[in-house]
Amino acid sequence: MDLQPIHHEPTTFVKKYLFTTDHKVIAKQFLWAGLLFLLWGGLLAMMIRWQWAYPGEKVPVIGDLFLKESGGAITPDLYPKLFTNHGLIMIFWAITPMLIGAFGNYCIPLMIGARDMAFPLLNMLSFWVFVLSQIMVGASFFFDNGAAAAAWISYPPMSGNIGTPGHGQTMMMAAIFVTGVATIMGGINYVTTVIRFRAPGMTWMRLPLTVWGLWLTSVLNVLFVPVLGSAGLLLILDRMFGTQFFVAGANATGTGGDPILFQHLFWIFGHPEVYILILPAWGIVGDVISFFSRKPAYWYKGTVIALIAVTVLSAVVYGHHMFMTGINPLLGQSFMILTLVISIPAEVLFLNWLHTMWKGSIRLTVPMIFALGTVFVFGLGGLTGIFLGTISTDIYLHDTMYVVGHFHYTMAAATFLGTFCAIYFWFPKMFGRKMNPMLGKLHFWFSFIFITLVFGGQLVVGYAGQPRWFFDPYQYTFLQHLQDANIKTSWAAFALLFGQVFFVINFFKSMFAGEEAGDNPWEVGTLEWTIPSPPPVHNFDPIPTVYHGPHEYAHPGVLEKMGKDWLGQDEAFDGIELSASTDEKVAQGA
Amino acid sequence: MSTMAAKMIEMPPNVAAQNRARREWTAMLGMIFLLAAWAMMFAALFFSYAIVRVRSNVWPPVNAPEFSIMLPAINSFVIALSSLVLHRGVSHLRKEKLAAFRNAFMLGSVFAALFLGLQWHFWSALMASGLTPDSGSYGSIIFGLTWVHAAHVLIGFFALIVLSIQAWRQVYRLENSITVRLWTMYWHFVGIVWLLMFVTIFIM
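YS: structure for the whole thing
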């Protein structure tokens, strides 16, 4: 039997679109599931912004529909549920399924030249377990006392039975555990697939950066999501079975549980999670910038090393979230230094992207401008992070809106723009049609300008001293003068939501009536563009042989002999000196 | 194929068998990552235990009821023995001694049931002596960690039952032995976690 057999296309609807083992269909399932929850999380965000601009006033539309009891206003009881579920939904049920679930599934087998994932059945299971967790999130809203309300970090004692009574919080913790299981299943699949299913000639140093980003993310997922699983499990035991892992009160009797313990467990997972979310976006951006600068990615090997360095460092910096917990100052300093060290590989990445563009023939396509937007907002997020990683400034900025602005730039703005970069780039391959560039550019400028303003506004009011999570900040005299700034920020958020209309129109219109894309509309060389759009069930008729790295552009020899400025990874081209992006040893071997 | 893989799976000469060996290595790699994930989960539990313990002045707490560690000690033997039996079973399967393989897995299932039964008895005895999950962090650690572990033993127990039934029906030969081997790996993992728990919680 062949190692990667060709399966026939399933004929029944259920096997083709629901319980499918085809990684490309599972990718689309994750995309739909993620987009749906992105909308939900986004609407929750709009309600939070409304509250900070006009506390106590009737929320337009949503207030009429869902908040009849309070006359349309957001109540103090509802408010923590909004930001708790906004954060958790966006992280676990919107960004994760889209960047990792959808594009991990779609890109990994296609870009490494495989017919499917290593474990297709596990892949299907991963999606349906994920759906179960989404149903659990939905269900958590219908318990007495309502949905989870202990913020996305779910610290005890807030997340204990006294802080948040009722089953909504328990259900949310269980949902996080279940989605964690789905993520781990996906992670095991991605990690194994890249190790085992690379096409002949696809060495590690010829992998597209997208695959590198997704692979490293998967390694982090496999190793650190289980730690969150443990934290959630212990919290559920505390809530349901009376254990006292996180109950501080027990301390008085000599053998105390410790709420700080939860913070340790949470951030051992939580800091890698930040990189879990951004690494795929970095990988995609690295590829897209090279593709549309029509130049080899500058110092490919350095980018890979930097990505690996960030991955490793991300596992040893979690303490910088806990400077204010009475952590040992020596330990705090070590965490501070390790945290600041991350800026070195991050700088390597940024400089490599800039160098890639330097003197390139830049094509400002929609994916390209989204990639540049991602770089810009992540730059802002990274720079503002330095002040939080440094203990002396963190003491002042801790738990202010500054923190919110910072991590939204990194985890929200950068992943949001990165996700759309991926959607615009692979849409022609996924659906066989091009998206409208004009609507795409409108979507970009609305998204980019207003997302920058929203989180910039948060940085500013945070620096001025506004704490995060306040129901009505203007009850306090020292914050009243910030209402104007908050109102402006809120209107930027509403404009951001409005800008998404361009995407929705474009997405659905292009899916059914867009221009036929052809095999390779972007003229790039990675393997997924060598096959029809959309690809057949088995992806590749013969498994391709790979001769080059992913970024062979603007080589004079290729231009002269083949009349095009790019070279496919599977196109043999003898007699030319391969560009700097290719590993020398490999070049000699090939 | 890496040298490590070559050591774990002997490379047979013909192509079909080579492809089988490659597929088996892929499956085994998946299992290794799964166990790595589960190891991190248990590592987080041990980390929690360590934090709680170093932060308390006396351990066990002064008012904690005394209990015998006889049952956990016996259980350590039971689970070690079961791992040994399953290991023997797998080597029987490799030689295609199907009856011996079947017997080993049935015995293994009995040991798994015995382990769970003794755990249940141990928990009841603890509760009777006054140590409950809600009696401070001491009770939380002992019950919480052994509960989570027992849940994994339970999964393994069901798997062993299914494997035993399939062995009875002679489903497995050398060619499709990978399923059996992967579950045996899982079982060894659960056993190692138990031994770590026994040493750190009950002896130290």
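YS: worth flagging: The radius of gyration of chain A is 24 Å.
IM: good catch. Also Residues 579-590 of chain A have pLDDT under 50 and may be disordered.
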